[in-house]
């Protein structure tokens, strides 16, 4: 990746994570345009207020100060699209893993996504963002931190509001700091 | 120490102009940084008086005695914004905010009482890493190290406790087992960010952190502390290398007071580890010029 990225005329950032965690919302917050989403109505019972799901991937773009395109992709969360992950991850300078703080198996999901992404590239810079924590009285970071320790190197892990541009940007800042 | 500017009720284009104008203040020897209004105390507020949210923020700022710049059509350019900010800040800002070519990290004599919640959480063995309760005038805020969350009945209670974390305004005590079934409310937020913002706002008055070699095993949850990019650098440094406050400040060109504030906050959160070994994973190769461009786009100052 480093050789490709340093020579590349574009920057590529990927948002990954399970269905309903807030990837599409976070991408919308951090880019200049509404993401192109391939969404369908949920075939299973709706997840709270969520009635659609991304069935392929999200794509949006921003422009860096010097005109370099920043391409932002959202990895589909469904396992049937797992074959797309290596393709989408190729050439990315980092990955933001978005997890749902209200999920009872959030620690398992965290471990799954860390291993999934590291299987593609061992040293891929990553950061974890956890949504919906303000609505969950019992939420605790402890199990997530334990899962990260089991997977090896520490990863920045922030609770955040995917609708808040500044908080999403702060996640990316943490990602960049780990690359220094 | 840079002046803190908060803005509210502005569209994206005006936000960008305001950020540029804030940076342009350096030409007037004024260091300042801009961020969205988050309810915490700041040095100046810039808001649109024609926007309902902007008007609300202006009201709050005026009640607090914070200088306000009302963003009107006449201030539509970066140059005019810069001039207006400079004029307002020159009338309101103390001399200490003027930047100098030879500015060095300063540590003033600490005026933070040892009995303040921040320092007690950091130094009292009975409270460090424990679940504690802050009380003031009937308001109650829980700081739960066990879950890394702060719980309160309202956002304003939490913000007030955060602003006064380094003072004696709030009493602090461990939460007893009988109390646990009766939380003060349902407003939940990150404890790590709460402690960092509380320490940061009082950093000019905190005692120097002891010259101990420390490390961090876990990343603090700093998602809600987006205005404090320096903390990211401190955390990354502590994860890679063990270090004393002076060494960290020197290595990364940070003010000693900034590093001390981070360490007091992380210690109060129970995250600092004197036995942690540095991460053995070498840092990934960063993609050269692309990194600088990404950092600039996302507001990360590259040393």
From TrEMBL, chain A:
Keyword check for Nucleotide-binding: yes
Pfam families: ATP_bind_1
SUPFAM superfamilies according to UniProt: P-loop containing nucleoside triphosphate hydrolases
UniProt GO molecular function: GTP binding; hydrolase activity
Keyword vocabulary terms for this entry: GTP-binding, Hydrolase, Nucleotide-binding
Keyword Ribonucleoprotein assigned: no
Superkingdom of source: Bacteria
Record-stated family: Belongs to the GPN-loop GTPase family.
Name used for this protein in its record: Signal recognition particle receptor subunit beta
Species annotation: Dokdonella fugitiva
Taxonomic classification: Bacteria, Pseudomonadati, Pseudomonadota, Gammaproteobacteria, Lysobacterales
């Amino acid at each position: 990746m480093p050789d490709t990225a340093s020579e590349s005329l574009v920057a590529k950032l990927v948002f990954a994570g399970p269905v309903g965690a807030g990837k599409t919302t976070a991408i919308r917050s951090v880019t200049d345009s509404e993401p192109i989403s391939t969404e369908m109505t949920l075939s299973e019972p709706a997840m709270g207020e969520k009635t659609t799901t991304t069935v392929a991937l999200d794509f949006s773009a921003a422009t860096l100060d010097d005109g370099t395109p920043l391409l932002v992709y959202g990895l589909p969360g469904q396992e049937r699209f797992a074959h797309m992950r290596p393709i989408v991850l190729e050439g990315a300078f980092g990955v933001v893993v978005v997890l749902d703080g209200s999920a009872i198996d959030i620690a398992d999901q965290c471990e799954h996504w860390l291993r999934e992404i590291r299987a593609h590239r061992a040293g891929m810079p990553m950061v974890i963002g956890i949504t919906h924590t303000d609505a969950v009285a019992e939420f605790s970071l402890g199990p997530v931190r334990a899962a990260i320790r089991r997977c090896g190197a520490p990863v920045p892990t922030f609770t955040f509001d995917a609708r808040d541009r500044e908080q999403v940007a702060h996640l990316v800042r943490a990602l960049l700091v780990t690359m220094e | 120490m840079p002046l803190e500017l908060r803005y509210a009720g502005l569209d994206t284009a005006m936000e960008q102009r305001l950020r540029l104008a804030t940076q342009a203040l350096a030409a007037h020897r004024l260091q300042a940084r801009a961020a969205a209004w988050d309810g915490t105390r700041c040095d100046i507020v810039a808001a649109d008086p024609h926007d309902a949210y902007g008007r609300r923020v202006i009201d709050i700022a005026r009640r607090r005695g914070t200088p306000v710049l009302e963003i009107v059509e006449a201030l539509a350019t970066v140059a005019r914004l810069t001039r207006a900010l400079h004029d307002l800040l020159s009338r309101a800002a103390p001399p200490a905010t003027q930047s100098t070519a030879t500015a060095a990290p300063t540590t003033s004599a600490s005026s933070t009482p040892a009995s303040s919640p921040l320092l007690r959480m950091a130094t009292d063995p009975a409270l460090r890493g424990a679940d504690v309760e802050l009380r003031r005038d009937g308001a109650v805020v829980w700081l739960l190290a066990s879950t890394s969350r702060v719980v309160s009945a309202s956002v304003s209670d939490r913000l007030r406790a955060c602003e006064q974390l380094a003072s004696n305004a709030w009493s602090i005590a461990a939460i007893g087992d009988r109390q646990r079934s009766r939380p003060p409310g349902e407003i939940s937020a990150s404890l790590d960010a709460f402690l960092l913002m509380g320490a940061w706002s009082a950093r000019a008055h905190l005692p120097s952190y002891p010259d101990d070699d420390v490390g961090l095993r876990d990343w603090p949850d700093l998602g809600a502390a987006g205005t404090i990019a320096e903390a990211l650098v401190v955390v990354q440094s502590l994860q890679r290398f063990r270090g004393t406050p002076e060494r960290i400040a020197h290595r990364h060109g940070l003010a000693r007071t900034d590093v001390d504030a981070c360490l007091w906050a992380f210690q109060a959160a129970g995250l600092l580890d004197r036995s942690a070994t540095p991460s053995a994973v070498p840092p990934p190769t960063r993609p050269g010029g692309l990194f600088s461009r990404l950092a600039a786009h996302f507001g990360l100052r590259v040393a």
